[in-house]
């Protein structure tokens, strides 16, 4: 099979769909075409890809015009022209928040398989997890940075100092993102609260963190109480394939102290905070209701050397299946089959169907 790896075009997205090591594994039986400089931001040169067995192509068209296209982020509007009928596209899609992309994929007849909805029988999301780990950890790093006065924040040191209390970090959601965010926040010495609707998950988190983290059941009352006192609020809510629910209203954001910071990792699924809108690494923040908002949807793109390798460690087995068996790979692997979002002009994934009610064209 011919496999294409285009250069990512999202603002300051330096990750790449395949590492040279992955290309080496694939090129034993398949032809891999990598757009020139696609991996340079992650530390991988064209020469490294060539040594691994790839052919370097000089433009996006030649990378896209392949049976299987492997990316990191969803195609942008400028890339819709490259979508083809019967083409296998394997990447993060987050279609619940991408109506135009969903329509473009349907019209093109592309077979779109989303990393984020590949799901194991135990409910785990093997291709979302590595980036959730990174995004969760970075959310606190970015939050701490934007709490600095020079960045527009209220000038709070999350860890505090002797005689001065630490900052308050509130995390909405105790899944992978929320857990990793809490690890970093606890390590920095902050006061940490996690709000989650799953009692079993809260029990797990108690075993993990003990008394170092305050765990609260998600209710409007609890959310209002903790959010209004947060120095750093992290949105970490995930409903697979669906738009994230809005848990924090504009009026509640207005109750936060001026210069507090919101980092919503759920922004690529629509966000769980009413005042949050997507931003970019070039212009990551804005002020709303006196609060600093960070809405970058590709947070792991800030650490591409780490993130690209972590992603490939998880995606490569599935990419090999698709390369070896084509669409039939979905019949052979139930987890991969759940990644299928759109096929030949039809929305397949139930959660994405529910979002659009099949009313997209």
Features of the shown structure:
about 350 residues; single chain; alpha/beta; Rossmann fold; 13 helices
Unreliable stretches: none
Task: Assign the structural class, choosing from mainly alpha, mainly beta, alpha/beta, alpha+beta, or little secondary structure.
Answer: alpha/beta
Relevant CATH superfamily of the largest domain: NAD(P)-binding Rossmann-like Domain
- CATH class assignment of the largest domain: Alpha Beta
How far is it from the N-terminal to the C-terminal residue, by CA?
A: 32 Å
Provide the domain count.
2
Order of helices and strands: EHEHEHEEHEHEHEHEHEHEEEHHHEEH
Write a concise synopsis of the structure shown.
With 361 residues, the chain is of the alpha/beta class. The protein folds into two domains: 2-118 and 304-356, NAD(P)-binding Rossmann-like Domain (Rossmann fold, 3-Layer(aba) Sandwich), CATH 3.40.50; 129-301, NAD(P)-binding Rossmann-like Domain (Rossmann fold), CATH 3.40.50.720.
What is this structure's SSE topology?
Layout: E1 2-5, H1 20-26, E2 31-35, H2 46-52, E3 55-57, H3 60-64, E4 68-70, E5 88-91, H4 99-108, E6 111-114, H5 129-146, E7 168-172, H6 176-187, E8 191-196, H7 199-209, E9 213-217, H8 220-227, E10 232-235, H9 250-253, E11 261-264, E12 285-288, E13 291-294, H10 304-325, H11 329-332, H12 334-337, E14 340-343, E15 346-347, H13 350-356
Parallel strand pairs: 1-2, 1-4, 2-3, 4-5, 5-6, 7-8, 7-10, 8-9, 10-11, 11-13
Antiparallel strand pairs: 6-14, 12-13, 14-15
Helix pairs in contact: 1-2, 5-6
């Amino acid at each position: 099979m011919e496999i294409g790896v285009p250069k990512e075009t999202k603002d300051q997205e330096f990750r790449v769909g395949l590492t040279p090591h992955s290309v080496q594994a694939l090129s034993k039986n398949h032809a891999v075409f990598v757009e020139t400089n696609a991996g340079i931001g992650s530390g991988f040169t064209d020469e490294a890809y060539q040594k691994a067995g790839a052919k370097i192509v000089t433009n996006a068209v030649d990378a896209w015009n392949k049976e299987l296209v492997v990316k990191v982020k969803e195609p942008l509007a400028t890339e819709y022209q490259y979508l083809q009928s019967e083409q296998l596209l394997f990447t993060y899609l987050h279609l619940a928040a991408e109506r135009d992309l969903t329509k473009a994929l349907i019209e093109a007849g592309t077979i779109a398989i989303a990393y984020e909805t590949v799901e194991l029988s135990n409910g785990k999301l093997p291709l979302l997890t590595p980036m959730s780990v990174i995004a969760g950890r970075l959310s606190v790093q970015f939050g701490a940075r934007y709490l600095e006065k020079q960045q527009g924040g209220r000038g709070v040191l999350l860890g505090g100092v002797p005689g001065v209390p630490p900052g308050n970090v509130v995390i909405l959601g105790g899944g992978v993102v929320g857990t990793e965010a809490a690890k970093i926040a606890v390590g920095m010495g902050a006061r940490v609260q996690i709000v989650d609707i799953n009692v079993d998950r809260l029990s797990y988190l108690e075993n993990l963190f003990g008394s170092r983290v305050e765990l609260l059941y998600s209710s409007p009352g609890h959310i209002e109480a903790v959010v209004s006192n947060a120095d750093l609020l992290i949105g970490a809510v995930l409903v697979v394939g669906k738009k994230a629910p809005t848990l924090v209203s504009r009026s509640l954001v207005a109750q936060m102290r001026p210069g507090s910071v919101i980092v919503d990792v759920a922004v690529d699924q629509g966000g769980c905070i009413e005042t949050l809108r997507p931003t970019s690494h070039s212009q990551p923040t804005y002020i709303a209701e006196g609060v600093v908002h960070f809405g970058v949807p590709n947070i792991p793109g800030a650490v591409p050397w780490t993130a690209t390798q972590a992603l490939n460690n998880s995606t490569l087995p599935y990419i090999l299946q698709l390369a070896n068996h084509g669409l039939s790979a979905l019949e052979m692997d139930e987890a991969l089959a759940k990644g299928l979002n759109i096929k030949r002009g039809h929305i397949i994934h139930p959660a994405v169907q529910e979002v659009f009610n099949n009313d997209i064209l």
